[in-house]
Amino acid sequence: MWLKALELRDFRNYESLQLFDLSPRVNIFVGQNAQGKTNVIESVLMLAVAKSHRTNRDAEMIRFGGETALLQGMVERDNRTYKLDLHLLQKGKKSRVNGVEKRKMSDFVGHLNVVLFAPEDLQLIKGGPQTRRRFLDVEIGQVSPQYLYNLSQYQKVLLQRNTLLKEIAKKEKTEELLSIWDEQLCVYGAKVLQKRFEFVDKLEGFARDIHSRISGGKELLSFRYVNSFDWTEGQDAADRFFQTLQSKRRLDILRGTTSVGPHRDDLEVRIDEREVHTYGSQGQQRTASLSMKLAEIELIKAEVGEYPVLLLDDVLSELDSERQLHLVESMGERVQTLITTTSTYGLEQFMQEEAHVYRVDHGAMSREG
Ligand SMILES: Nc1ncnc2c1ncn2[C@@H]1O[C@H](COP(=O)(O)OP(=O)(O)OP(=O)(O)O)[C@@H](O)[C@H]1O
Ligand SMILES: [Mg+2]
């Protein structure tokens, strides 16, 4: 699928923007800081999911002094055109698809699929384990409601178990009560664990190819799911989990918290067998987190049947010119890409031949070349 046209009125620093000539392949938005590059990316994200990655308050996106903001997009998918309208009001928002009002936002969302890579996503590699667990949970959740159910059950039981552990330590409750929670924790925990394993396996295949392409075939990316109790595929996960819980029981009571389980797991990312978190250069960390996100594109394709639109905000800085070129070329082949940058140094050749280039200047845009 691809975004044919985008129109904005009173959105962020755009009083009025009309883009009727987007390329189904690569579109580069170039400009100095604070000109409105990320604002354009944000507007496309809004049309896709009706939520911003920068704020929870929709009214914040209405241009200073404006009353309401209007976002419109034309999406081509399955040989059909969809006209999307999103109207941001001081209180609430309204949406239409092909002129028909959608009263529930969930009926509006999903006509346009996007994958966004924003500078914050670098935390995927740099951040702590909880960042990577969250990544897994969000990505798996998008394609498996069953997973979200099992995960929320797990978290509920975990909370109850932890409360009970503290009560046992204070001698308010007896230890026997733990067994009920332990059993349930293991049932849901095993399901969460197995789904994550499966997903990481699938993701690795895609991410490895992408990483290899961006690095010019020089680097091998691999993942390892690190589980907090001893289990290998083929074994009964619930059983292994249960045994570990029993052996850690004393410790858990002492600490008042559950020391093993999927809530303590991590995803290790390696380049050429070395952990990127510890040993990777800035550029390698950026490339690796990018490859992880870009792998989503293939997962969505497998799920939805069409490639989503790729939004790359500020990813070029910190990639050398060779990686920049490989990235833009390999993505543009298959996927419509909207990419922002402050400098197109190194991309000149490519830009003249293949990409649409827009110069962004104080909330105004002009096509170059
Ligand atoms: N509601 C709003 N109304 C008007 N202007 C706004 C609004 N919200 C943000 N802005 C302005 O938009 C500008 C920032 O735009 P944006 O984040 O798109 O910049 P950018 O081009 O991505 O810059 P950088 O290269 O630094 O990332 C700021 O100058 C900010 O004041
Ligand atoms: Mg920006």
TrEMBL record:
Family listed: Belongs to the RecF family.
The protein's name in its UniProt record: DNA replication and repair protein RecF
Pfam families, sorted: SMC_N (PF02463)
Gene Ontology process terms (BP): DNA replication; DNA synthesis involved in DNA repair; double-strand break repair; SOS response
PANTHER family tied to this protein: DNA REPLICATION AND REPAIR PROTEIN RECF (PTHR32182)
GO MF terms, alphabetically ordered: ATP binding; single-stranded DNA binding
GO CC field: cytoplasm
Organism per entry: Tumebacillus flagellatus
Residue ranges of domain RecF/RecN/SMC N-terminal in the record: 3-363
SUPFAM superfamilies per record: P-loop containing nucleoside triphosphate hydrolases
NCBIfam families to which the protein is assigned, alphabetical: recf
Function: The RecF protein is involved in DNA metabolism; it is required for DNA replication and normal SOS inducibility. RecF binds preferentially to single-stranded, linear DNA. It also seems to bind ATP.
Chief localization: cytoplasm
UniProt KW keywords: ATP-binding, Cytoplasm, DNA damage, DNA repair, DNA replication, DNA-binding, Nucleotide-binding, SOS response
Binding, ATP: 31-38
Matches recorded under PROSITE patterns: RECF_1, RECF_2
CDD domains named in the record: ABC_RecF
Subcellular location: Cytoplasm
